[in-house]
Amino acid sequence: MAGREFTQKDIDIFNKLAPEAGGSVTSEWGHTYPFILRPISHKFVDSSEDFKQRIDRLTPEELDYLVELALDNKEDIRSLEPEDIEVLMDMISEKISNERAKQLKQYLGIV
Q: What distance lies between CA 16 and its chain's CA centroid?
């Protein structure tokens, strides 16, 4: 799964999830992040509760956009912290629908 060039929408979502990045989508090593959620899960959050609070900032439309990216292999969900995957699926069920969460779980092979 290759990274991708962030669109303005991706940058806006990233900044909403990690305002402390100061608008930068570049790692401390100077590489542009290839995904939105992975650096949030691994670099910015302190806990799965923190991850949940950040994901909760997203509108249902923004969250569904991330689901679409994941279904198109443009967003990496599998490498998130396991607790964060669980939080993400709960938020998808809550903000979008149980069916949408189930669709993503099936796609990722998470039962």
A: 11
